[in-house]
Amino acid sequence: MRIFQRHFSTKDEVGRGVGTYSMKFLGEKILKCKIGFESSESKGTIFWIAIPKKE
Prior knowledge:
Elements: H1 19-30, E1 34-40, E2 44-50
Antiparallel strand pairs: 1-2
């Protein structure tokens, strides 16, 4: 998904566009979590993170 790509932004403002990219990279590669989102015009956007239970 584009939202998790490095340097992606929906704005024409100054910024690096690494926020969601960094979150997904750190979460999935280092913490072994699953990260995603659900979005609808009527309800907005919800980001979620699923952290595995340590055995």
